[in-house]
Specification:
The complex is a heterotrimer of chains A (about 525), B (about 290) and C (about 325). By secondary structure, chain A is α+β, with helices and mostly antiparallel strands. Chain A contains 13 helices and 21 strands. In chain B, about 75% of the residues lie in helices and about 0% in strands. Chain B is built from 13 helices and no strands. The chains are: A alpha+beta (about 525), B mainly alpha (about 290), C mainly alpha (about 325).
Chain lengths: ~525, ~290, ~325
């Protein structure tokens, strides 16, 4: 049994108005989607940290804006917005909110709710990890009941994405202790589905919101059945007892042969990488890190372990992102060049024991991996072999997520190297990952320091014009691939199996449920 | 001379009892078989159990790979053979640890009695009445599933049964004539305990030891199922089975063979322990 | 009797305290500390990390934290789960029925199956029936329960389609009659209770009943009874059975912890919403208030199980009087 504790930042599933005509037939109402997964934790968008919670509350709550299948920002609770730069260098975003939105309990939605949501996030008392998204905000204000204004201390291009976060109702939460409010398990939102019940470790059910301000869903309900074991999850999908489940890579081939299940595969937003602690002299050398990437046959790994369902990564930007520079190609598999670069950096096998050494010290390191995921473990076991071929000794150590993260996090930073995945998200800002200022407290765990990277990251944050901004990221992408701040490994594809009776599905990097209100089932195929 | 003669007749009786029991004999043979495999693993394994050979991956059983190969092309026979090493090592060390603690505390309690005895026995009763798997997963999840920790935790939690048995034997034995005699000729407490009483309490200890091994092997495999077993690059049977479970229907040889190894080895120890108990327990003698 | 129960419970309390202290210490001193709040994500800003640390009082020295937890616990306040942010007591209590629905049928069926087989094995020692029962007993005692469970699901549920794969009830049974719901629940119980939990337990019990029965049969008073000309089954039922079942009752009480441990595996495989599963996920998330509460709860359940066994013993054996 593997508990899928995903190491990525949560990507919130969002909804769009875009009408997708996938078939000639007219959609009809009815039926229920039964979705199998591990248990969600808190159904409150400002508190949750895990993927299952985000999947569920994504159907219950709406943000001010949302992201569509082409990863563009679209209106949601806000029907429009404008961004202006003030003369003193500050940036102001004004959201014009819809006036026809009701909370699921019938109370009208206003700008006060938006203000309440963000003030609650920023309140030190609230236990949330989301405050970092809004650290450039200076003032939140309600201009009138349907106008919400946010003033930033400086131009901040990534700002918009942070407003996709679900908005919570002031009238139900004011005066409550948000950290332990019953609301977190009986949520009331403005989204396309209304919360019905959550039976712990059994299921969560939501029903169609007849008063939804957007497209009212065709499906009657969604039920998330909570199944902790992957093997059982696959059997249930195969048996038709559930309609929807994420498919672990190792089950892909077999599940594709199940007639009544369609397996969607689509590029995700998550990349994986080998991090090298550059506080240690052996990794504080661009040549060494480049060699450590060159020594890995990522093509073979992708083929053998991911069954071809992953592509070697060239940087943190997903292939579908506009920030991805089409001219950047992955570093090749070139063990000879790797050996040459290592020799240049002073690492040679002087004592003939098969391992490289420098100043009498063998090139070996403790390599942290997360226990539990069979794919991750196999990648590390193959990497061990590839490194052995160039005389570098990787000593794997698999840890539980809590232990793993605490070794990486400040103040400990007790590691030599590790394997981790991260999701950059819809906006390509990589400030927390690679800016030198984030080495002490941020996610720049490996202490990567490069002045040009810093300049590009900073420029990327302050540039609002799209094309100029894109050019900055293309340059940054090129530089990151050259310097290999970490060894970029893979972009694994997302695999999701869905019962064939469902129509209207459009896979996107942000998942499948983004247009759930458009899903429907032909009348003769309806089951529930 | 008299002592030796007495011993040999005891052994003879034991052997007569034991060898009549075909199950016990079969169990003994299985135990010897797996022990030899574990000790000689590096010489018996036809391939390197750790080095991936991806051109060879997911091969069903064949002449070259009797038990097939895994997702990274490693020979399952070699991996199962090396798995025997880790599984039995953990089991033997954990049982040795728990037996040592059990003997020590049990004999002290049984010999001296009094407050120490009643306190210890209360403690034992209570630990015995606690679902150890709960404590086990808590401890292992927190400190990480290294071989050392598995031995320490499983050994450290498993001594209570032995302590009880040893105490009961000591209580019975210390009132008997030979300990009176030993005391009369001025033997020290330690000497009486370990030279005179302990050897006479050996029978139930041996049975407890034999029956302790399967518990640890099954415990480790249950921990593996929960994701807390031995981790790569080391391999125990539990980890091998657990790694193979996703392939139950696409590559049946991955979970089945290590599973079979666990089953046969545990069965062997259970047969042997059961036979030993029958042969050593005077109350069941016919 | 009452004072006996009181004594048993008062003896259990130090152990429970001991267990809570050790677990609490481990959870707070382990590398990585508490991570329940951050499951699946990391805290980006130092200020936020400090806010969380202060919120959970982690800046206090460990003994203070333990004393505080203990104080609240005695007032019935087990705190809130770090992960689910719900009252822990509520979370634990709502899972007890599921665990009982799993373990009680498992024990009942095991007893009902194991006692006749064990007795038969003993009175017809070395017969074909004895050999067969011994063989199966060893088979099931020696196989990892999760392995048995997965094979059973593959064969009985996936291939033959006779039983549901997981869960507690079938979807879409809208307002079924109690009888339909009951049968549905039984069908869902077969694999987790009958196979994952039940087979190993039954097998162990058969061995135990057999040994206990053999011992009684070989005792003098049975032989005396037989020599007095009492017919075989009378001897068995009137004398041997009663005396051999007494230790079985005790062992049932002692095996409560094993059943609860087994339930952990069964609940995980069969997606059964019980305490074991809660404990497993809480341990992985280092959700310490939940871990502490589940440990206390299973300990309480075992103490209760032992007490019930003692009571049953007293009822079955009139010679025993508890002072």
């Amino acid at each position: 049994m593997k508990y899928a504790l995903s190491s990525m930042l949560v990507v919130v599933f969002l909804f769009s108005f875009t009408v997708i005509a996938t078939s000639e037939e007219a959609p009809v109402r009815g039926d229920m989607l039964v979705y199998g997964m591990v248990s969600p934790m808190v159904l409150n968008p400002i508190l949750s940290t895990d993927v299952p919670s985000a999947v569920v509350h994504g159907t219950i709550f709406s943000g001010l804006i949302k992201v569509n299948d082409r990863m563009e920002h679209k209106p949601d609770l806000a029907k429009s917005w404008e961004v202006e730069l003030l003369d003193d260098g500050r940036m102001v975003m004004t959201f014009h909110l819809r006036e026809d939105v009701l909370w699921h309990d019938g109370v009208p939605f206003t700008a006060e709710d938006a203000l309440f949501t963000f003030e609650t996030i920023m309140d030190e008392y609230t236990i949330t990890i989301r405050r970092g998204d809004y650290e450039k905000v200076e003032i939140w204000e309600v201009v009138d009941p349907h106008t919400f204004r946010v003033t930033f201390v400086e131009p901040f291009a990534p700002a918009l994405t942070a407003f996709t976060r679900g908005v919570i109702p002031k009238h139900l939460l004011e005066g409550e202790d948000i950290n332990i409010a019953r609301f977190n398990h009986e949520p009331v939102g403005t989204g396309p589905f209304v919360f019905r019940e959550w039976v712990p470790d059994v299921h969560v059910i939501v029903d169609r919101n007849e008063n939804y301000f957007g497209q009212v869903p065709y499906l009657d309900s969604i039920m998330w059945r909570i199944i902790p074991d992957d093997e059982i999850l696959m059997m249930e999908l195969e048996a038709g007892a559930i309609d929807f489940a994420g498919i672990p890579t190792i089950h892909y081939r077999r599940m594709r042969e199940v007639d009544h299940v369609y397996v969607h595969r689509f590029p995700g937003l998550r990349f994986t990488y080998f991090g090298w602690n550059e506080r240690l002299p052996k990794f504080d050398d661009d040549r060494v890190r480049r060699a450590l990437t060159l020594a890995l046959d990522r093509e073979i790994m992708a083929e053998v372990i991911y069954k071809g369902l992953a592509v070697p990564a060239t940087g943190p930007f997903p292939p579908v992102s506009w920030a991805t520079n089409p001219d950047v190609v992955p570093l090749p598999y070139d063990p000879e060049e790797a050996k040459r670069l290592l020799a240049e950096a002073g690492w040679t096998d002087t004592d003939g024991d098969g391992w490289l050494d420098r100043d009498g010290i063998k090139f070996e390191f403790e390599f942290l991996g997360q226990a539990g995921d069979p794919v991750d473990m196999m990648i590390i076991e193959l990497a061990m072999e590839h490194y052995r071929a160039i005389g570098v000794k990787l000593n794997p150590l698999f840890l539980e997520w809590g232990d793993f993260v605490s070794r990486l996090d400040p103040p400990r930073r007790e590691f030599e190297a590790f394997f981790l995945g991260f999701s950059v998200g819809v906006d390509p800002d990589v400030h927390v990952f690679y800016h030198s200022g984030q080495a002490e407290w941020g996610f720049n765990d490996t202490n990567f320091v490069d002045t040009i990277t810093d300049v590009l990251i900073y420029a990327g944050r302050r540039t609002l014009a799209f094309e100029q901004r894109r050019d900055i990221y293309w340059e940054l992408h090129y530089r990151l691939n050259e310097l290999q701040p970490v060894s970029f490994m893979f972009f694994p594809e997302s695999l999701v199996g869905v019962e064939r009776r469902f129509r209207g599905i459009v896979p996107t990097p942000v998942g499948l449920l983004w247009n759930i209100e458009y899903w429907w089932v032909p009348e003769d195929l309806q089951r529930h | 001379m008299a002592v030796i003669k007495k011993k040999s007749t005891f052994l003879a009786i034991f052997w007569r009892q034991f060898s009549r029991n075909r199950m016990a004999l079969a169990g003994g043979m299985l135990v010897v078989f797996f022990t030899v495999i574990a000790i000689l693993a590096p010489f018996l394994a036809p391939h390197d159990p750790r080095t991936p050979n991806i051109r060879n991956r997911m091969q069903p059983p064949s002449e070259e790979h009797l038990l097939g190969t895994d997702a990274l092309g490693r020979d399952m026979l070699s991996r199962t053979i090396h798995g025997a090493r880790i599984s039995l090592l953990i089991a033997v060390l954990a049982v040795a640890l728990s037996i040592t603690i059990g003997i020590l505390l049990g004999s002290l309690a049984g010999y001296y009695g009094g407050l120490f005895d009643s306190l210890l026995m209360r403690f034992v009763d209570l630990v015995l009445s606690f679902p150890t798997l709960y404590l086990l997963i808590t401890l292992v999840a927190l400190v990480g599933p290294s071989i050392f920790m598995l031995v320490l935790v499983m050994g450290g939690l498993g001594w209570t049964g032995t302590a009880r048995i040893v105490r009961a034997e000591f209580l019975r034995l210390r009132e008997q004539e030979f300990s009176e005699a030993a005391r009369a000729i001025g033997a020290g407490n330690l000497r009486i305990m370990f030279r005179h009483l302990l050897p006479n309490a050996m029978a139930p200890i041996i049975v407890a030891t034999t029956l302790g091994v399967p518990g640890v092997i099954l415990g480790e495999s249950a921990l593996s199922f929960l994701g807390l077993g031995v981790l790569p690059p080391e391999m125990s049977w539990g980890t091998l089975v657990n790694a193979g479970l996703p392939f139950f229907r696409t590559a049946w040889w991955l979970p089945i063979f290590p599973g079979l190894a666990i089953f046969l080895c545990v069965l062997g120890f259970n047969f042997l322990g059961d036979g030993l108990r029958d042969a050593l327990d005077p109350r069941l003698k016919r | 009797m009452l004072s006996y129960i009181a004594r048993r419970i008062s003896v259990a309390i130090p152990l429970l305290l001991c267990i809570t202290f050790i677990t609490f210490a481990m959870m707070h001193l382990a590398p990585g500390g508490l991570s329940g709040v951050f499951v699946g994500a990391r805290v980006r800003r130092e200020e936020d990390r400090m806010a969380i640390i202060r919120h959970y009082g982690l800046d206090q020295p460990f003994p203070v934290r333990y004393a505080r937890w203990l104080g609240r616990m005695f007032r019935g306040d087990f705190g809130h789960s770090l992960v689910y942010r719900r009252p822990v007591l509520e979370m634990v209590v709502e899972r007890i029925p599921a665990t009982l629905q799993l373990t009680i049928p498992a024990m009942l069926v095991s007893v009902l199956v194991a006692i006749p087989i064990g007795i038969l094995s003993a009175i017809r020692q070395y017969s074909i029936a004895d050999m067969l029962s011994t063989f199966f007993a060893f088979l099931f005692v020696s196989t990892p329960s999760f392995f048995l469970g997965l094979v059973a699901i593959l064969v009985l549920s996936v291939h033959l389609g006779w039983l549901p794969i997981s869960g507690m009830s079938t979807l879409g049974l809208q307002d079924p009659s109690w009888w339909v719901a009951f049968v549905d629940r039984l069908r869902h119980l077969v694999i987790p209770a009958g196979i994952v939990l039940g087979l190993g337990f039954t097998a162990g019990l058969i061995r135990y009943v057999r040994a206990s029965m053999l011992e009684v049969i070989h005792q003098d008073y049975i032989r005396t009874a037989q020599s007095k000309g009492l017919r075989g089954y009378v001897v068995v039922w009137k004398h041997a059975l009663r005396n051999s079942l007494l230790p079985v009752v005790t062992i049932l009480g002692l095996w409560v912890p094993f059943i609860l441990s087994g339930a952990m595996i069964a609940e995980t495989i069969s997606a059964w919403p019980g305490m074991g599963r809660l404990a497993v996920s809480a341990v992985f998330a280092r959700d310490y208030p939940v871990v502490m509460a589940t440990l206390l709860m299973v300990a309480a359940m075992t103490v209760l199980g032992n007490l019930l066994a003692d009571l049953a013993y007293a009822i079955l054996d009139p010679r025993i009087r508890y002072g």
